[in-house]
Design a protein that fits this description.
Elements: H1 2-12, H2 14-21, H3 27-49, H4 58-80, H5 85-92, H6 95-106, H7 113-132, E1 134-136, H8 142-169, H9 171-193, H10 203-228, H11 233-241, H12 243-255, E2 258-259, H13 261-290
Antiparallel strand pairs: 1-2
Helix pairs in contact: 1-10, 1-12, 2-10, 3-4, 3-9, 3-10, 4-8, 4-9, 5-8, 5-12, 6-7, 6-8, 7-13, 8-9, 11-13
């Protein structure tokens, strides 16, 4: 479990690293450079697997790479440029709840009554978060939250086909090839979205980009996959729901973000709903076993 906990801590800090990187580069260029750094790290592995993937898998690989790396990361990093890290990582915390409803409406996985109840509570928490705003040290912006939410929705829609593809071609093949392809695909969009290509070199920005490229894009995935072999899916779901807890705490400690009491109440509701959504299936299954 320690491997997955470390991976989630790294992922929860990616928006904080992005804030430091924005001093050096525009958000879209930060996404591009992050993927380029990660691509160089996995390039030797990607070259070994390049000729081994069947031709029939290339089309879904290209589509999923584009959506997961280019679209999702672009929306997230453009969104966090407008809003506080605490609010952005709380929106990311909605993903366990969103995953259920995406499965209900698009993949035939019917949601139970408690999913609807917890989903309503989670979205009410987001409304409180945005309405409460920030007292100082960081703005809670509707546009920024909306962009991060859109990224999470797309991520949830691609999760099931991505898992099927990974099962077919293997995690090393998918991870290495998708990171390299993601860097290539991201180039035209980063150039199109960015208004300024200049780099304002500074130590904090360079360190942040290395952390995003190596730590968040490669090492964290390695840790997570290493832990997958020994941690059950139910436990992994609970751990994912805890990601916003780490992100909010790090935003307060490292960036000095201070939200209003109303926003803190919204964050607490979102996190509680996400945890309950991950915990309820296990609880109900245990009750049926002991009944």
């Amino acid at each position: 479990m320690i491997y997955q906990i470390l991976a989630l801590i790294i992922w929860s800090s990616s928006f904080i690293a992005a804030k430091y990187a924005y001093v050096m580069l525009e958000p879209a260029m930060v996404v591009l450079l992050r993927l380029v750094i990660a691509a160089f790290v996995v390039l030797p592995v990607a070259r070994r697997h390049l000729g081994r993937i069947p031709r029939s898998y290339w089309k879904p690989l290209l589509w999923l790479t584009f959506l997961n790396y280019v679209v999702v990361l672009m929306l997230q990093f453009l969104g966090v440029a407008h809003t506080s890290v605490a609010s952005a990582v709380t929106i990311v915390g909605l993903e366990p709840v969103m995953m259920v409803f995406v499965g209900h409406f698009f993949f035939g996985d019917k949601a139970d009554w408690y999913h609807w109840l917890l989903g309503a509570a989670a979205f009410a928490g987001v409304v409180l978060l945005i309405a409460g705003g920030a007292e100082s040290g960081g703005e809670v912006d509707l546009l920024g939250c909306a962009l991060v939410f859109a990224a999470g929705l797309i991520f949830c829609c691609t999760m099931r086909p991505t898992k099927r593809l990974v099962a077919d071609v293997g995690a090393p093949v998918y991870t290495s090839l998708s990171l390299v392809l993601g860097a290539i695909m991201c180039l035209p969009f980063a150039l199109l979205v960015s208004e300024n290509y200049a780099i304002q070199w500074n130590i904090a920005g360079v360190a942040s980009m290395i952390y995003l490229g190596v730590g968040c894009s490669w090492f964290a995935y390695w840790l997570w996959n290493k832990g997958m072999g020994t941690v059950s899916a139910n436990v992994s779901g609970v751990l994912i729901a805890l990601e916003p807890v780490c992100g909010v705490l790090l935003a307060v400690l490292l960036l000095g973000e201070q939200l209003s009491m109303l926003s803190w109440a919204g964050i607490a509701i979102v996190i509680t709903a996400a945890l309950a959504s991950s915990w309820m299936p296990t609880y109900r299954a245990n009750r049926k076993t002991t009944a």
